[in-house]
């Protein structure tokens, strides 16, 4: 009698799986069930994409918080270490490079580490700053105001450097002689107009500014605004807008009298 009971025990799971398959198969062809599944899927997709937008917004806000933190004021270091060291420390923390007068360039390595020797240069002015590709924004430029004898400044490819930022360079007007804005995606001709304060500039690089609609004409206007400055990076003929092109006439047709 044990054998039949054993056989039933072995067959039962198979039968249960079969009935489950039949049940699901029957539900798949039920129109009401299809509508419920479609509503469920649409709801799922709606919730999913809402979460993606929320997650994207979170990461964007987190990134902006990091930028603001990196651009905080380092003026509190001025009393202890001097204005040049405070300004230099800001640039080095950003990943840029600084050059003190009669000293070698100080640059961070790929890990962001840099020589601490510059703390001994409190009485030596910073004469050049290379802040290329740094995340400097409007607030961060306040730290450059500490560098009263800065002669050369490179802001190439700075993603947060915009027209408002250029309006904050005027405190450097007495010393700044070289300025590079090449490759800054947010700078337009409106921001370049703010550079009229920098009358001691001798070289200005405005190459590869995608927000400038008419590079050739912009260079001409900047040269008039800064007559003692050599503006480089733009072909004079580039972007000069001409009048509408003349339509070619069809010589095979008679010209109306």
Task: Set down the secondary structure blueprint.
Layout: H1 2-28, H2 31-70, H3 78-81, H4 83-94, E1 97-100, E2 105-106, E3 126-130, E4 152-154, H5 163-166, E5 178-180, H6 189-192, E6 203-205, H7 215-225, E7 230-232
Parallel strand pairs: 3-4, 4-5, 5-6, 6-7
Antiparallel strand pairs: 1-2, 1-3
Describe this structure in words.
With 257 residues, this protein is of the alpha/beta class. 40% of the residues lie in helices and 9% in strands. It is built from 7 helices and 7 strands, in the order ααααββββαβαβαβ.
Fill in the keyword field for this structure:
257 residues, seven-stranded mixed β-sheet, alpha/beta, 7 strands, 40% helix, flat
Spatial strand sequence of the major β-sheet: 2-1-3-4-5-6-7
Number of helices: 7
Q: Report the end-to-end length measured between terminal Cα atoms.
A: 118 Å
Estimate what percentage of residues fall within beta strands.
5-15%
Secondary-structure-derived class = alpha/beta
Helix content: 25-40%
Order of helices and strands: HHHHEEEEHEHEHE
- Average pLDDT level: 81
Cα radius of gyration in angstroms: 33 Å
Q: How many beta-strand runs?
A: 7
Q: Major β-sheet, in short?
A: 7 strands, mixed
Uncertain regions spanning at least 5 consecutive residues: 4-29, 242-257
Spatial shape: flat
